[in-house]
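Hi Y.,

Following your request, here is the sequence exactly as I used it, all 257 residues.
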Amino acid sequence: MDYKIVFFDVDGTLVNYEDGCIEESTRKAIQQLKNKGIRIVAATGRPLSMCQDLRKIGIETFITANGAYVKHQDQVIHKISIAADIVQKVKAFADDNKQSLSFFTEQLSMNSVKEPATLKAMQETLSLLEFPAINEDILKQEVYLMCLYVDEEIEKKYTSQFPQLLFKRWHPYITNVLQHDISKSIAVQAVLDYFKLTPQEALAFGDGDNDIDMLEQVGFGVAMGNGSEALKNVANFITKKSTEGGIDYALRELQII
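Below is the corresponding structure, written out as tokens. Let me know if you'd prefer a different format.
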């Protein structure tokens, strides 16, 4: 198949899951794809502001906030925002109950509740070593995603308090808080539509359960060797770990570069 676009998850895929760095073999593979005229998209749970290292290797299209905000160069091509009154109510409830809540605009910020378990989860999922800033003006901004840092038992308090909202857990200590459903697959389709491409012309790489729908949305899905078993079960190909040059290995084995 003559693939014209490749979607890459970031943390644990493009970015080494052990030290948060981009392998040299990955940098070279990205450049080879670009030289062949193949479009490259980063699809991540990160906010856009945390994608600067990816811009430096030539990526111009970003699916961020787990699919809630998509931008190609300076053009916003897809976004799903949360109503300001909902942001206010969830924030007030989290503040009162002393639970951490993060907000995704193009930046990442959070409320004032800073717990060790929250930072550990942020490190595991976003490679953060310190808490993001507190944004006092968050209620005046357009928020695309909120992440609540609690276990499943405490989450029940929120589902009871806010039955109209969606709570999508993607980490043992993180659940997305949504007004409308978001996913990487919805965002992938928006990108394909923007570039007038079909799913069969697309390839995707991922490592986590939140990449399953993305791999299922495209013509060919690759799971990293460090990926979850659930993802490997839906993948068309399982490559080496991100620490072992897994992206370069797969692209060569599939004769794409």
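The chain has a mean pLDDT of 96.

Thanks again,
Q.
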